[in-house]
Design goal:
- With 383 residues, this protein is α+β, with helices and mostly antiparallel strands.
- It has 2 domains: 2-141; 159-382, Alpha-Beta Complex (paralog of FGE (formylglycine-generating enzyme)), CATH 3.90.1580.
- Helices cover 34% and strands 14% of the residues.
- It is built from 9 helices and 13 strands.
- The chain has helices at residues 2-19, 33-49, 74-78, 89-108, 114-141, 200-208, 220-233, 273-282, 290-300, and strands at 159-161, 164-168, 184-188, 191-193, 241-245, 250-255, 258-262, 285-286, 311-317, 345-349, 364-367, 376-378, 381-382.
- A 4-stranded mixed sheet has the order 11-10-9-12. Strands 5-6-7 form a 3-stranded antiparallel sheet, with helices on one face.
- The longest helix has 28 residues, at 114-141.
- The protein is globular.
- The N and C termini lie far apart (46 Å).
Length: 383
């Protein structure tokens, strides 16, 4: 119910903006908000209300028998990505209401086991994830946001961690995404890692030193991305930046349609993997492996290890772990990693737009290296 209330509040912001004359085009892989919201309800109905085999958990088959939908047009509207037609927002809201009521009734009768509750937890996770996507779309369009700014971090020395043998991944009980399963042992060498994500003051130094003008510090593919990205908008900093020079007074970003000067001690946000990697090269450092990030946040949180304001890029390419079993429910959604193996990079942590119940130390997310619409940042390790 909390997740649905959040979704409806976000939809209301889009609805108000449209009423005030804003046109909402397809922006950076985003579908119109009413279709995104309708798909949340459709997916939950497909896997819960219409699925007699929901008790099988993540092994419930995608092609199993299904009961009729609560809405006769739901399948044509929401089943296939890229559908050309969808209903008005008012009708979507009505469909979402009856779907939620049906889901809550089914939940009362669900078997209280990990399998019995798995798909309920999955649908909750998906709706929370989509809320982040809607916030990112609102951010791209300059709408007001239901999130505050990132915290300011006092300077802290990097942390040194010893070699260790670590159990990576999520435990078997409870809910975890397929890319977080199963657990496996890894050997980790000693490493030094930043206590906090890189902040704006640090990033300004890179820009002032010609960071966006010299190919020396860029991965060849990153430099090509920058060359292409610079054609339409003259990219000279992370997304939403309007001004970024020490001599000009620091960093000014566009926040909900307003120009806002940010504190130099706040973490960099809306940055691509290419930019994070270039900064690390310029600084003579590197992005952390995802297992290094996980060890550091488990072992040093509370002792200057700060996280949770930005999703953090790692150097790790997205790969399935041994024993990986695909989540049938996630196929075709933005949470399905299969189309992105070896191309996407792993993101760790959570951001100011991540719901609290999604923030945990073993959370494993991913994005292609040129994506920057989310609240993404980074920290580095010594070479």
């Amino acid at each position: 119910m909390d997740a649905r209330n959040c979704t409806l509040q976000l939809l209301a912001r889009f609805e108000e903006a449209v009423g005030a004359g804003l046109s909402i085009p397809r922006v950076d892989h985003f579908d119109p908000p009413e279709r995104v919201a309708g798909h949340i309800a459709w997916l939950a109905e497909w896997w819960l209300g219409r699925n007699p085999q929901r008790g099988l958990g993540f092994r419930s088959p995608a092609d199993g028998p299904r009961l009729p939908s609560l809405h006769r047009q739901a399948d044509s509207w929401f089943r296939h990505v890229g559908a050309e037609h969808w209903p008005e927002l008012g009708e979507v809201r009505g469909y979402m209401l009856v779907q939620l009521e049906s889901t809550l009734e089914i939940l009362e009768r669900a078997e209280e086991t990990d399998d019995g509750l798995y798909l309920f937890r999955a649908m909750l996770h998906y709706e929370d994830f989509i809320a982040e996507q809607l916030v990112a779309q609102a951010r791209a369009l300059g709408l007001s946001l239901p999130v505050g700014s990132a915290a300011e971090y006092a300077a802290a020395e990097p942390l040194n961690l010893p070699a260790t043998r670590w159990l990576l991944g999520a435990p078997a009980n409870g809910f975890a995404l397929a890319i977080e399963r199963p657990q496996w042992q890894v050997n980790i060498l000693p490493f030094e890692i930043d206590a906090q994500p890189v902040n704006w003051s640090q990033f300004v130094e890179f820009v002032d030193d010609g960071g966006y003008d010299r190919s020396d510090w860029w991965h060849p593919q990153g430099w090509e991305w920058l060359r292409q990205a610079s054609i339409p908008d003259g990219r000279r900093g992370p997304r939403h930046v309007e001004q970024i020079r020490a001599a000009a007074g620091g960093v000014v970003i566009n926040w909900s349609g307003r120009s806002v000067r940010v504190s130099g001690s706040q973490p960099v946000t809306h940055i691509t993997w290419w930019e994070a990697d270039a900064w690390a090269r310029w600084a003579g450092r590197r992005l952390p492996l995802e297992m290094e990030w996980e060890v550091a946040v488990h072992q040093r949180q509370g002792r200057s290890m700060r996280w949770g304001d930005v999703l953090e890029w790692t150097s790790t390419r997205l790969r399935p772990w041994d024993g990986y079993e695909r989540d049938n429910w996630a196929v075709g959604t933005a949470l399905d990693p299969q189309p992105h193996w070896e191309m996407a990079r792993v993101l760790r942590g959570g951001s100011i737009s991540t719901r609290g119940r999604m923030k945990h130390k073993r959370s494993r997310r991913f994005a292609l290296p040129d994506r920057d619409e989310a609240f993404t940042g980074f920290r580095t390790c010594a070479l």
